[in-house]
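ESCALATION

Customer reports they have been waiting on this structure for their group meeting. Please prioritize. Original submission:
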Amino acid sequence: MTQKKRCPTCKSLQTIKWGKRENKQRFKCKDCGQLFTSNNKSVSDSNKEIWFRNWVIGKDTFDKISVESGYSKSTLQRYFSKMLSKAPILEFSSTDEIYLVIDGTYFLTIFVWWFIETFI
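Update from on-call: job pushed to the front of the queue and completed.
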């Protein structure tokens, strides 16, 4: 199975091969017409971030993302594990006491959360 290339402009996976330039495979997006090369690391990283977001927030399964991306489930699990290990660590250095209120909700497929700090 070949991996679908995501358009760097509109993020569509509706792309087709469009010749070679300087020995690199070119692609054309069927949706917006953008031409791009396959060796664009930022596009690959962007795809991984989109699939990761769809897995975490959109609740897509590894099976669904595997079909969409062309990557195996084990490869996706390895990518996502690396992304989870790089999660930001929150540190609190103030000696003041605070109340931290956290709330969140789903709007269709998007989870929105917010917090409020209140100093005592």
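Sent to customer with the following note: The mean pLDDT is 76.
Escalation resolved.
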